[in-house]
């Protein structure tokens, strides 16, 4: 998990669910250079954050470069009442 607030509530929440062996926290800012190999992830999920940094046209291609071929990217944004494929 890459998050600006990983050392706080988010990390504690995932640990309390028993996912601390499956989710590895990284303190990163998605608008800066990311420390991951291209095509590394099966999926990228953005929860309540893409609306803050994704308005830049370069962000989506940048993030998609880290997803394996055939992988997925999802964004959960508050306020939407339907899915947008």
Question: How would you sum up this structure, described in words?
Answer:
The chain has helices spanning 6-16, 50-53, 59-64, and strands at 2-3, 26-27, 41-47, 67-76. With 85 residues, it is an alpha/beta fold. The strands form 2 sheets. Strands 1-2 form a two-stranded parallel sheet. Strands 3-4 form a two-stranded parallel sheet. Strand 1, helix 1 and strand 2 form a beta-alpha-beta unit. The longest helix is centred in the N-terminal third of the chain and has 11 residues, at 6-16. The radius of gyration is 13 Å and the shape is globular.
Q: How much helix is in the residues? A: 10-25%
How much beta, percentage-wise? Answer: 15-25%
**Strands, total number:** 4
Distance between the termini: 23 Å
Widest sheet: strand ordering: 1-2
Content-based structural category: alpha/beta
Shape: globular
Q: How confident overall, as mean pLDDT?
A: 83
Task: Offer a quick outline of the entry.
The protein has 85 residues and is α/β, with parallel strands linked by helices.
Using brief descriptors, characterize the structure shown:
alpha/beta, two-stranded parallel ribbon, 3 helices
Write the layout of secondary structure elements.
Layout: E1 2-3, H1 6-16, E2 26-27, E3 41-47, H2 50-53, H3 59-64, E4 67-76
Parallel strand pairs: 1-2, 3-4
């Amino acid at each position: 998990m890459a998050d600006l607030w990983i050392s706080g509530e988010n990390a504690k929440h995932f640990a309390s669910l028993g996912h601390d062996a499956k989710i590895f926290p990284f303190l990163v800012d998605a608008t800066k250079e990311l420390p991951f190999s291209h095509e590394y992830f099966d999926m990228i999920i953005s929860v309540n954050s893409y609306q803050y940094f994704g308005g830049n046209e370069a962000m989506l291609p940048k993030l998609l470069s880290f997803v394996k071929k055939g992988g997925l990217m999802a964004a959960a944004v508050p306020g939407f009442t339907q899915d947008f494929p």
